[in-house]
Structures are given as C-alpha cells and as structure tokens.
Write a structure and sequence with these properties.
mainly beta, three-stranded mixed β-sheet, 21 strands, 39% strand
Length: 375
C-alpha cells in the first residue's frame, strides 16, 4: 500500500487464500488490536458499489461470519503476521452517492472458534491441568494452531480419585478459567508464517524472557521516533493480598500475606510503590496450602501495574512493527518515567499510504531499573 510496507490479506473458508485484486482495491482501512488478557480482534473497511466485484462477492458469502482472515505486513523486508482469525460480524452502510457505500468486516482471532460449542461434561481422568489443555487444543492443529502448555508456577498435585475433572463450558472458557485459577495465562500468538499460530498456556514468562524492542524516544530532536506519549501513576492499584488457610490439626485460620514475587512478575522499575490497600482473597479457607498459594499467585498476576503509559507511533518512522507482550524502553520522558516497560496492548491502524500504531505500556513502579537502553 506504500513504499516501506506491504499488506497481505488472505480470506477463505478453511485455508485462507490471497484476496483477489478487486478486494484489495476496495480496501480502505485495516485495524488490528492485540491486548494482554483478551482476544485479539480486527476490522476491515471496504468501499462497495451496487454492481462492483466486491458486491458480487458479498452476495456469494465471501465476507460471511466464520470465514477465515489472515492479515500480515512486510516492513523493511520483515514479515509480521498481525491476525489469524475469523469473521464474526459485518455491517453495511449504503449511500446514495456513487462509491460511498461502506462494508465493515469485524472479527476475532482463532480463539473465537474455541468458544462456539459447549462441551460441558467431557471427562479428563488422571491428567494434570496443563495436559488437559494440550488435549483440548490438539483438535485445532488442523488450523495450524500449535499448542504449548506448561505446568503452573506452583504445582498442585491432586489425587485423581478424589477429584474427577470434567470440562465446564466451551474450550475457550474452560481453558481461560483454569488459567485464572492457576495464575497462568492463555493466548494465541499468530505467526511466524501466515496460517500458523502458537497457543500458549502456562506461567506469564513474557515479562522475563520477552525480547526488548528498540527504544521509544520522545523529545530527542531528530532521533524522536514516536508521535505522542503520556504517563499515569495510580497509587490505588498497589494492593497487598492475603490468603487464609485452615491449619488441619488446630482448625485455626492463618492469614498469609502474598509477597511481590519479582522473579515471576518483574516490575522493570527501580522503586516499588507502597501498597495503599489490603485485600483478603476468598474463598481460600478450605484450600490446601498449595491451593491457597495458587490463589495468591493468580491475584498477583491479575493485579494492575501502578504506572501506565500510552502513545502513538508511525511504523515507517519507528522502523519496525511494535508488538504487544514484549518489553520496550522509553527515553526522553525524565528520570521518573524513563526505562523499560511491558507492552500491554497495540492497535494497528493501516490506511492507504499510512501505517500507525497506538499502544499502552505498564510497569510496577517508578524510576528506571537500567542505566542504558538499546536504540
């Protein structure tokens, strides 16, 4: 669509094929959103005429819900798959002016397919939860989805004769509920090639092992590479959690504070915030010590980082696609807010001749944990 980047759009029923040229010509806007903790989504906008090829394809069901859509971009020779999903909705806005009618296609990533059929009651005898996830996700291998499931950060071994596990709800709702209970994460990462995806279930290790992207530079004269950036520090998000277990012999309730386990959830900040609130996690009184620990760990991962940032960049100016679930350094914002951040969300906005991204950042405190950053 423009010198410096190239858009690839693929559409199909099962295996997506490159979209025909009339579809590309009618495409006016592409938006792809990826946010930690939720399904990724996309939206495509087309101009559509009464007798246009796009109208004829629309009449034959080319843009119907459940159709597969793959969106990729090539920036400076590097291919990034932004979306592998399905259409869930379409909206048509007719106009009396020629060429002004608009067809808007909306969809979600392939986890949407995992959320259509209620499979309550399927048994998984004598299997740990991460192997249950492997078994559930195996059925989506035909779509190029490769499952990677890891054990919880704190193993909780159960006697299979005491608790016979049965699925509750759809594949997606069941896997995400297990992730919440274990302090794990579940998400779909498209790529590295069109038609391939990685389905990850396990501890949130992205903050520890994610690659660091080139620094976001603001107020750096000619080396400034973003359009805007702002920060917020919300102290009310700093919370001290407690779990309570019942000592099996004396039956005395024992409150246990949940420590801030930086080895599992690095803050990337020099100074941790002082907790302003305390919260009792319930119900945990009848949990085993391991079960209570898992409840506390889940709360720790769900807690919000106190410092957040938001901004916008031009991809061609930045030089590459900015990605969520990775680290990024900030420079030029002052000692209080400079340093490394975790990228919580990214929204790609692509128009003919323009490729911009809006993003949000987060970390656990103030001040930089590093003295230098990569540019």
């Amino acid at each position: 669509m423009n010198r410096g980047f190239y858009l690839t759009l693929m559409v199909g029923s099962f295996n997506a094929d490159p979209a025909p040229q009339p579809v590309i010509d009618a495409l006016t806007e592409v938006q792809v959103s990826s946010t930690v903790g939720s399904q990724a989504g996309f939206q495509l906008k087309f101009t559509i005429g009464k007798n246009s090829p796009v109208q004829q394809m629309h009449n034959t069901g080319y843009f119907d819900p459940r159709r597969r859509v793959i969106i990729a971009v090539t920036v400076n020779g590097s291919v990034e798959v932004l979306m592998d999903g399905i259409i869930t909705k379409q909206d048509l806005t007719p106009s009396s002016s020629p060429g002004k009618s608009t067809l808007t296609i909306t969809g979600l990533d392939l986890t949407a397919l995992m959320d259509f059929i209620d499979l309550t009651g399927i048994p998984y005898p004598a299997l740990p939860k991460f192997l249950i996830v492997e078994a559930i996700l195996a059925k989506y291998l035909v779509l190029g989805v490769v499952p990677v499931a890891l054990p919880a950060s704190i193993p909780n071994f159960e006697n299979p004769l005491d608790h016979f596990i049965k699925q509750q709800g759809t594949d997606y709702s069941y896997v995400t509920s297990m992730a919440r209970e274990e302090g794990a994460v579940f998400y779909l990462d498209p790529g590295p090639q069109p038609g391939q995806s990685l389905a990850y279930y396990g501890p949130d290790i992205s903050k520890l092992f994610a690659g660091v992207q080139p620094a976001l530079s603001i107020n750096f004269d000619s080396t400034t590479n973003i359009d805007s950036l702002s920060f917020s520090y919300d102290g009310t998000l700093a919370t001290q959690y407690f779990v309570t277990i019942i000592e099996p012999n004396t039956k005395i309730p024992i409150p246990i504070p949940v420590p801030n386990i930086d080895i599992l959830k690095a803050s990337n900040a020099a100074h941790a915030p002082t907790p302003l609130k305390s919260q009792q996690l319930t119900p945990t009184a009848n949990e085993s010590p391991m079960g209570a620990a898992l409840a506390g760990l889940a709360a720790l991962f769900k807690s919000f980082d106190v410092v957040s940032g938001s901004g916008q960049l031009d991809v061609l100016r930045y030089g590459r696609v900015f990605k969520a679930r990775q680290l990024a350094a900030v420079r030029g914002a002052g000692d209080y807010y400079d340093g490394k951040y975790y990228v919580k969300s990214v929204t790609h906005n692509i128009k003919r001749g323009e490729y911009k991204q809006s993003f949000t950042l987060s970390r656990g405190g103030t001040g930089s944990s590093v003295s230098t950053v990569d540019v």
